[in-house]
Task: structure prediction
Amino acid sequence: MLQNNGCEVSGIRVKVQVSFSSSQPESRPRKLGKAARDALNDLSQTLGDSPLKLALKKMIKIKE
Result:
């Protein structure tokens, strides 16, 4: 638009001022739904004894 009026535009500069809250948002523990718990349980049943199987079992227990 400026160029159409005979003005030469050789660049554009944008200044941005960032503001943020110094406090961290409160994190709430998330709960697994029944379908997710069932799926993780089914997966854990297909695994042999392993750290992954233990971790899945703990997730299922904690998130109930």
Summary: The chain has two helices and no strands. The two ends are 61 Å apart (CA to CA). The CA atoms of residues 1 and 7 lie 9 Å apart. Residues 34-46 form the longest helix (13 residues).
